[in-house]
Design a protein that fits this description.
This is Sulfur reduction protein DsrE. This protein has helices at about 20-35, 65-75, 85-90, 105-115; strands at about 10, 40-45, 80-85, 100-105, 120. By secondary structure, the chain is α/β, with parallel strands linked by helices. It is globular. It starts with 7 loop residues before the first strand and ends with a strand.
């Protein structure tokens, strides 16, 4: 029997300012979901904009799966969170974000990353 993959927490601070780093975070998170892992993707810094409807389509990267497709998979099979402070600095409220995106802060991030066997990656 194959062991269950450990939980994965992926945090990205990159938005359209660093498209490759942002896409890598989403791609790794989506690949982990496909592998059966419990995945939590955190959108911080400039990536907070991807929590808004239509904003993921603004990241276009050659030879990469379109960000909206990756985001849809993560919303359906994982957990997507936008940082409370990052959202507030950008005027983003819980009412503004896509259905399924939660707004949460550092305490929740720390709780997720300190879970037994959790693996955290930052892009």
């Amino acid at each position: 029997m194959t062991p269950t993959p450990r939980p994965l927490v992926v945090k990205t601070t990159s938005g359209t300012d660093r498209p490759e780093a942002a896409n890598q975070a989403f791609t790794v998170a989506a690949a982990a979901v496909a592998a059966g892992a419990e995945v939590s993707l955190w959108l911080t810094g400039e990536s907070a904009w991807f929590a808004l409807p239509g904003r993921a389509a603004g990241l276009v990267l050659e030879h990469a799966t379109p960000l909206p497709e990756l985001l849809d998979l993560l919303l359906a099979e994982g957990r997507v969170t936008v940082c409370t402070q990052c959202a507030a600095r950008r005027g983003i409220t819980a009412q503004d974000v896509l259905p399924g995106v939660r707004v949460a802060g550092a305490a929740v991030f720390v709780e997720e990353t300190l879970r037994p066997d959790a693996q955290a990656l930052v892009y």
